[in-house]
Design brief:
Elements lengths: L2 H35 L9 H10 L10 H19 L16 H22 L2 H32 L4 H4 L12 H17 L11 H4 L9 H26 L10 H23 L5 H23 L3
Length: 308
């Protein structure tokens, strides 16, 4: 077997294992910091690991309209975000950056949101249908934002190669990078919604529609959806770092690797602070907010097409 294939496979497995190990830890830090901000003791940092193990050990109850679709949506949700992890640098070069391009990455990022809608549709309860209707409205104006950011990088570098696009390419303009700074601001403002955290966890909204699309899920299926959500936070944070703050990743190991994960944890802490200090938006408020961000992102794309 070709050594390059062996190395790619090993690196991909390493990326997936790293994300699976770190994701519950980030969730534990998020819970602990939130509790501290709200003057509570909060659960132990390792509690998410225990929660996942407990759910995985429970009976797998089939209670939706389409159990086959429920199982498919569960596995596809986790598999999609783990596949994205193989295309994103995690402190070193992405293992499968030569196997896909920016267009494939955009499709896979969109697919992770579609999985939630499939899950709610298969469950068939009233709360699930309300949740997926909200998810659909949000996706229409939210998902294009990261796609526009990736396309801006491709426009500047005139290539869809992932190793080029995911290396600060949004700033690679012929003059002052106005488009890069604009899309940076847009993604920062939309990041809470991209990782489905407060104040934009509207499709789940535990206090309103009792987790919406996941209302009918329990046991191992719920564990895998929760795990996918935790992994999504880490993967999107890694993607943000690669696109907008890649500086230092070229340093030799372990310095470059440590700098990368330090920036990821800083972004996770920022998500935590915003989630702990803001109330949930209504769906109409969120749509108007994302509409403004989408208009700004398209303006940044126009600027990029003119070399700014």
């Amino acid at each position: 077997m070709d050594n390059n294939v062996i190395w790619t496979s090993f690196s991909g497995v390493a990326n997936v294992c790293m994300v699976l190990l770190v994701a519950p830890l980030c969730q534990g830090v998020l819970r602990k910091v939130t509790a501290s901000i709200q003057s509570r003791q909060g659960p132990p940092i390792l509690q998410p690991y225990y929660d996942l193990l407990k759910l995985l050990g429970k009976e797998d109850i089939e209670s939706g309209d389409s159990p086959l679709m429920q199982r498919f949506a569960v596995y596809l949700s986790l598999a999609t975000v783990l596949a994205v992890a193989c295309f994103v640098p995690m402190g070193f070069s992405a293992p499968m950056q030569g196997e896909g391009d920016a267009i494939l990455l955009i499709y896979m990022l969109t697919l992770s949101g579609i999985c939630t809608m499939l899950a709610g549709l298969a469950a068939g309860s009233t709360y699930s249908l309300v949740g997926i209707s909200r998810q659909m409205m949000i996706m229409i104006v939210l998902e294009p934002l990261f796609a526009v950011a990736i396309i801006i990088g491709a426009v500047h570098t005139r290539t869809f190669r992932l190793d080029t696009v995911l290396s600060g390419s949004v700033y690679a303009s012929d003059s002052f990078p106005w488009s890069g700074l604009l899309i940076l601001a847009v993604i920062l403002l939309a990041f809470q919604a991209l990782v489905e955290r407060m104040p934009f966890d509207i499709s789940e909204a535990e206090t309103e529609i009792m987790e919406g699309p996941l209302m009918e899920y329990s046991g191992p299926k719920l564990a895998m959806f929760k795990y996918a959500s935790m992994v999504k936070l880490v993967v999107y944070s890694a993607l943000f770092v690669a696109m907008f703050t890649p500086w230092g990743m070229g340093f030799p190991l372990p310095m470059g690797w440590l700098m990368f994960w330090a920036k990821v944890f800083v972004l996770v802490l920022l998500v935590t602070l915003v989630a702990a200090t803001h109330a949930r938006y209504r769906i109409d408020q969120a749509i108007r907010f994302f509409g403004v961000l989408l208009a700004t992102a398209l303006a940044a794309l126009v600027l990029a097409s003119y070399g700014f």
